[in-house]
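EI: anyone free to look at a 905-residue chain?
SC: sure, send it
EI:
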Amino acid sequence: MKRAPTMKKPPENHAKSQELRKRAENRLRGNPPDDSELRPENFPDVLQELRVYQVELEIQNEELRRTREELEESRDLYFDLYDLAPVGYLNLDEHGIIRRANLTAAAMLGKPRHELVKRGLSRFIDKEHHSRFAAFRKRALEEGSDQHCELAMIRADAEPFHALLTVIPDNDAGGRLQGLRAVIVDITERKNSEAALAESEEKFRLAFENASVGACLVSLDGHLLKANQRLCNFFGCSEQELIGRSVDQFSHRDDAELSPEFIRRSLTGEVSDAFFEKRYFHKQGHIIYGQVSSSLVRDPQGNPLYFISHVQDITGRKLVEQRQALNAQVMKYLNEASGVDALVRDILLAVKKETGLEAVGIRLKDGEDYPYYTTNGFSDDFVESERYLCSRDDSGELIRDDQGKVCLECMCGNVIRGRTDSQLPFFTAGGSFWTNCTTDLLASTSEVDLQVRTRNRCNTEGYESVALIPLRSKGEIIGLLQLNDSHKNRFTLDQVEFFEGLGYSIGVAIDRWLAEREKSRLAEQLRQSQKMEAVGTLAGGIAHDFNNILAAMMGYTELALDDLEGTGPVVEKLCQVLIAGNRAVELVRQILHFSRIGEQEDRPLDLPPLIRESLKLLRASLPATIEIQTDLPKGKCQVQADPVHIHQIVMNLCTNAAQAMAEAGGVLAIELSTIHMDEDTVKTFATLKAGKYHRLTVSDNGIGMTKGVVDRVFEPFFTTKETGKGTGMGMAVVHGIVREHGGDISIYSEPGQGTTVNVYLPVLETELVTDETEIHLPVVGGTERILLVDDEKALAEIGLRALKYLGYAVTAFTSSREALERFRAGPDDFDLVITDYTMPEMTGAKLSQKILALRPDTPIIICTGFSQQLDDEKAKALGIRKLLMKPLSRGTLARAVREALDGKD
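SC: here you go
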């Protein structure tokens, strides 16, 4: 480019120069100045003026030369820009005839520039776009605004290309439209790229839409951007329902983190793709399984764009695998379980894990009811409220049908009783109940159709999908498998039928284990019975020997009292010895009762002495940290009961209370009172009737119990104690004893607040006849002849002296054989025979038989300290008049002798 010339600087007195220049111009135009100004003295000024004018002319010439050079330079630059521009420039008239073109346009159209002039541009446009070009040109002329149009064009050598044509109205100086200025851009490469891209996108679309698996595009924040039909079918939704939703929205709760975790790790660069299996929920609510492969897509610069994921439906395969795995697990547990508790627990855990169901449970027969044996996933409140199925009336009594069977509530009871109809859609041919929407079922089906009085607790808890599968063994229903989930459509008929087959295997196994447990329980009972029998035999032997010792002690004491006639300190002391001896006798009897040896029968009893005696036995086994407090009335509190049963009640209740305070110690309180219970009060009990009751209260301030434990405390074998520290039978036995005696039990307990147990026993109104301790009272004797036999020399001597004291003629032997020989020698020499039962050579029973064989009318009294083989009935059957338990007081012996001699029973 040429450099502009440097201009000369005008003179400083520019205004004066301007004036001189004007004068000079006037002279040149023929307007000479005033002659007065041409005077010689003015010549210097005129000369200066001419010089200034000359300078001005030179400046003008320089400016003209510079302007010409700039114009030439601008023209050269314009032509360079115009001709060598990267786009084609055309000037068109209103008819589309080319009036001017740059070199780029000429090259683009394949013709020299001069050959383009006066040619119509339409000759270079594809025929299919002629009408488009005409409309485009017309619109540009009419609207007078810039217009754009893409056209398919053809070079002079017939080679096609694509162009973007932009036109601008071309107006003259007067603003009249004289044509169009056009810009042509070759967009062939772009159009080819677009075509290739469109082809690629079409292929991708076809591949995406027709993929054999579900496919989707996912945004970087985890929302669905696009989904194919396969994926829509997989979820049971339309594409509109899927787009914009989070990938987690359909995920199973246990698998919800798989996709978000992959997104996080891929965006941090840890991974670029992933392959995993995942559980989803179908729109209808059931679980579906997908095998997911997902990749992060990036642009050429490596920036993340979106994720592309493929989801293959593997639900069918997973269900087969699930059932196979569940079958294998159950079979393993059936073969390896250590007991029914572990078996049921492990089976429920396997079912819940493999199916993904929220709650599962098993009911098993317990007496006439079918309570929950074990559950997994149900709330404690649900289990407690739904545990039992037996219907009860307002008084708490069980409701029975015409056949005497207990009525079972709810649909569970229906299935257990086999009251199902396969013609109804919610029952199966195998006797199961199932529904995928309890809300709809309850709304559309009456209880008559359901064939049961429903409790609707499953529905109120939010469980929509429910399946009840009977557990069978040997053709009978022994329990129930319950499957619950809050989602709808969790079951299919095929799945329910699978669980029916599984339920049969479970039922057989549980029944076998229950039978084994019952067998073990009976064996344990037998062992306990044998143990108690052994203890009883030992106790009997001890009792026999101890009774003999007591008899000697008490007999010699009575003899001493005979020698000490009157009163005095020695007499009083000996009387106390007799009182202590009688207490020892009662203690031996209690030991025999506890050993199940003594005869047990209900008879009038006074409760306070029995309770005190039980507490004496208990005190020795309790730690010193436990204080026993009693509040027992001084008057009589009579009941009709067996003393052993009363001991069992007191001992069990007090032992449980003491164990509840074992760690920290505390107060064991026993209270006995008499109350009257009216009609309203007895309604809170299952068996009580209005009337008077003795209330035995046993309370502690130990660890207490939860409501769930209190509700189960009377169940056989239920225990909260560690293995080896309780059988779970104690409270069940107490409950049974109390009910047998027409009473009932109530328990109040809270964790950490201790426990209070109230036992109610009906009051016995008749007068209680008690055995008073006999010390040394005058009794009626006689002069008859008595044969006395006892292998204990001391007892034989005591008996001899006591009977002689009463006036009788006594012959005493310590050998049963010698006594028999003496009787045989003179059967009529004796009016009465008194013999011990347990003797080494011949028992008292055999001696009695031989004596009666010699003289059948002989009165016989047998005395024993212990006998399991002889009781009153057996003694009478042998012809024995009286059976007396050692040790004997003189009064008891005297009355028995007179009754036997006088023929009184």
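EI: Confidence is low (pLDDT under 50) at residues 1-13, 723-729, 768-777.
SC: 👍
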